[in-house]
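User: Predict structure, ligand 4'-deoxy-4'-aminopyridoxal-5'-phosphate.
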Amino acid sequence: MSQRVVAVVQVRMNSSRFPGKVLKKLRGTSLVELISRRLIKAREVDEIVFGTSTDSTDDELANEIIGFGGKVFRGSLDDVQERFIQAADYADAELVVRITGDCPLIDWEIVDQVVSLAMKTGAEYSSNTHPPTFPDGLDVEVFSLDALKASRRESADSSSKEHVTTNLRMSDSFSKSNLVNEVDYSERRWTVDYPADLRDLESNLPSGFETMTWREIMSKGFEGIESSARRNEGARLGLGQKLWKRAKEVIPGGGMLLSKRSEMFLPDEWPAYYSRAKGIKVWDLSGNEYLDFANMSVGACSLGYGLESIDNAVKQAIDEGVMSSLNSPAEVLLAEKLIEMHSWADMARFARSGGEANAIAVRIARAHTGKDKIAICGYHGWHDWYLSANLATDSNLDGHLLPGLSPSGVPRGLAGTTVPFSYNNAAELSELLKTGEFAAVKMEVSRNFGPEDGFLQEVRDLCTHYGVVLIFDECTSGFRETFGGLHLKYGVKPDLAMFGKALGNGYAITAVIGRREVMQAAQETFISSTFWTERLGPVAALATLNEMKKVNSWEKITETGAKVKAIWTQVFNKLQLRHQITGLDSLASFTLDVPDWLGFKTLMTQEMLDRGYLSSSYFYASTQHDAAHLSKYAEDFEGSAVISARHSSNETIASALRVARSHNSFRRLN
Ligand code: PMP
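Assistant: Predicted complex:
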């Protein structure tokens, strides 16, 4: 007697990569109805049930299905397997055909073939995907309901609950059969994981595709869609990566900061988003916990995440109102405080990003001197004035930014106004300043390596001699070795200096401080912005400075950074890896002299992530990294380095990597 065959179509609105996709239309028909129309042609299927959740987010979907005459079963949102079994029971299934909502081109002939195979072989689990030879998106699984129930009794792990057949497929307890196509089309994609996939299908499918078999569709020249998605990506990607892929649909570049892109760390596997951060711990969207041995939010949180004294000051400011038609007194207190810490400075202005503070300083210097040109040595933000350095020749900023970074969109008229010079090369700077065309010299005091032979003093003397404004960009170096600018350590006084990053311990606040004579030029031009007057930034900065002072944070992070450098040195020496360790102790980084450095770095990141760390080839210290963290880190860093070193040739690194190599990150001149 033949078995009752029920197709259960698994659909829901809250797809993590493309929310609401099953109701999206392809050539005027919703994907869910398209599935229904194509599946109804399967001769071996006695009934079709759409299994969705009881959650209110699926109400509209359930109505749509009922609207086109489909049968709906609603069950658990999260335990998809339980919902699936209940739906199959509800329809008295003996043999179940599992179809998912991302396959609008599901093919009735393939469905019939897999059902026939299952009946002929008597296998408890049959499919056309193990291994796959059909295009991705024509996936069919057929199994006995009893087998699925038995597999749930054997293992109801989280993957099986979410992906329904994980254990049934993997377990040796169940007999299997697989439908193989004579030609392997498994590289072709006919599925909808992202909005771009739907756009591709919309424009490339032949007309009348709705009633064509997959072979007929192919005979019209349709091969599949262009996409970066890979087969079974839905099961493979974590929640963070799914959101990251969604982000790239709606946010150019995926996020606002180049250095936080997943591709900079571990493409496809980096957790990408956090749900919570406290101390040096960061929790991702699935609740996994990591120790932050990367850069503590690009150096913004040198006191650790969520420090109560700062958060409480901010909460109080929120209670008292974050903005009004009047100004916030905190900005005056913060100006006085920064001036007190830097005896050469008389005045301050505030902004909310490092790039803004840099642009303000450049404007002030140009207004003060009446000249245009700026000599730079370092990274100073994304604005036109800075990127214009790449207009003159394509490679001017190579040493400062990503090689070849395009100044597209920067007015050509700015070409030649910003000119780089090399760190520790006063002679080169002198040649530039001699022209008398320069308004300012802007530089990071020290970054990868320190000043040699009175270099900073020479720069100071040159600027004084030629009447050029000397600007120290302390956005990153500030508060790392001293309580204030790093220049305090060298005793060389600039005319202007900028602070950012650490100043608010994560709250947005940046500062420009300077000598009165120069700062007054801000009054001869126009520098003004609404949100520079909000209250939280200066309040957070005042609380941050208090806390820094209390714990001597600059000493603590320097000590911790030095210890991490020592761990690296010891591990690399032990493994006989030629290395270079650079940067202030609290902003340390390493590179290795290995055949495939990018591969090595990516593998280290992968290994460290598996051990519970956010990490890369650098470490920005915070006061919350303690001795216990460091000794655990030392062990895990060595473990990861041993594995990476073992694979440290081109071919074997690739085989050890689960993902593509990371992208290259910033390179700097100093
Ligand atoms: N200047 C320096 C020295 C920096 O390190 C940075 C940030 N990396 C900036 C400016 C730009 O700051 P922001 O990203 O806040 O615009």
